[in-house]
Amino acid sequence: MDEPRIETQRLLLRTPQPEDASEVQRLAGDFRIADVTRSIPHPYPPELAQRWIERCAEEWASGAAANFIITEADSGKLVGCMALKDISRGEAEVGYWIGVPYWSRGYASEACNALVDFAFRHLRLRRLHASHLARNPQSGRVLFKAGFRHLGLGHAACGSQGKVEPVELYEQVSGE
Ligand SMILES: CC(C)(COP(=O)(O)OP(=O)(O)OC[C@H]1O[C@@H](n2cnc3c(N)ncnc32)[C@H](O)[C@@H]1OP(=O)(O)O)[C@@H](O)C(=O)NCCC(=O)NCCS
């Protein structure tokens, strides 16, 4: 399948490229990102972004995931990442982060809405799920505004220390 691209009013979601590595490292290297995500270590090792970008291409080719760099359509600036992860049997997990300088502009909500549409209409997935740390409610707002349903509370190892913490669980089923 062709490399995916998603356009929204203000954003372009596109495939990660090798030249994105330094900006991914700079933005994902902020502790406030690692603190509330599952797979971002802190400190962020120099070669990790490059390895992640290579893996993104492999995952898209094998159908395992669709990883996107989020850029501002006007400036081309990289503002974050969003992904459909662990694609299997018509289901996927949604994950994302937005660089701290770009918070509170509605970018995550705008991108997540478009990603859900892409997942159901373009990839024909049937169910999406997502979770966020209970102490990170702004992520829940992103999911709620993108049509996700709150399922309840669970526990998961999260954050850069891998500590088990309460997480809020969400799902969205195609056509509901
Ligand atoms: C969660 C995150 C993706 C939100 O990105 P964003 O682009 O700022 O989100 P939006 O601007 O679309 O706003 C979403 C909601 O969060 C709220 N919000 C945004 N920044 C906030 C802040 N610093 N403090 C409190 N609330 C905030 C907004 O008010 C909005 O809620 P509303 O619709 O009720 O007003 C971003 O904060 C982030 O990357 N955090 C670290 C990584 C992370 O949490 N990833 C998700 C893991 S599950």
Automatic annotation (TrEMBL):
Q: Which UniProt keywords apply?
A: Acyltransferase, Transferase
Q: Which EC class, in a word?
A: transferase
An example molecular function term from Gene Ontology annotations: acyltransferase activity
* rRNA-binding in keyword set: no
Q: Where does the N-acetyltransferase domain lie?
A: 11-176
Q: What is its EC number?
A: 2.3.-.-
- Tell me the superkingdom of the source: Bacteria
Record family assignment:
Belongs to the acetyltransferase family. RimJ subfamily.
Stated name of the protein: GNAT family N-acetyltransferase
Q: What organism does the UniProt record list as the source?
A: Ectopseudomonas khazarica
Q: Source organism lineage?
A: Bacteria, Pseudomonadati, Pseudomonadota, Gammaproteobacteria, Pseudomonadales
